[in-house]
């Protein structure tokens, strides 16, 4: 893991190699009922056209899961959310966008915002 300048040369950014992760406890840092996750991502060495999953955010806690990133399908960036205690019958939500290699681009910063509420 290495530190670099963030988007627009402001702030800080982490560069993670294959297999490296950053972990935070979901307890008291994550509200399964409502909230948001916002972050910038800049990829350096992969394409969206591959069928490999690349999760930028993967929050797991008792009865809930939130994943944001490149899904296992070619050209699909998405967010997947499941909360077992949700009041509705549908406990899982998924939203995605098609991003081709020339639209995503290595070395280009992208902002991703995910919000959820009942």
Short description:
The chain is mostly beta strands. 3% of the residues lie in helices and 46% in strands.
Secondary-structure blueprint of this entry?
Elements: E1 2-5, E2 12-15, E3 35-42, E4 54-61, E5 64-70, E6 76-83, E7 92-98, H1 101-104, E8 109-116
Strand order of the largest sheet: 4-5-6-7
Shape: globular
Q: N-to-C SSE series?
A: EEEEEEEHE
Given the structure, what is the number of helices?
Answer: 1
Task: Tell me the Rg in angstroms.
Answer: 15 Å
Please give a structural write-up.
The protein has 118 residues and is mostly beta strands. It has one domain (2-27, 35-116). It is 3% helix and 46% strand. The chain has 1 helix and 8 strands. The strands form 3 sheets. It has a 4-stranded antiparallel beta sheet with strand order 4-5-6-7, with no helix packed on it. A two-stranded antiparallel sheet has the order 1-2. Strand 1 and strand 2 (12-15) form a beta hairpin. The longest helix has 4 residues, at 101-104. It is globular and about 40 Å long. The model has no long low-confidence stretch (mean pLDDT 84).
Name the features.
mainly beta, 1 helix, 3% helix
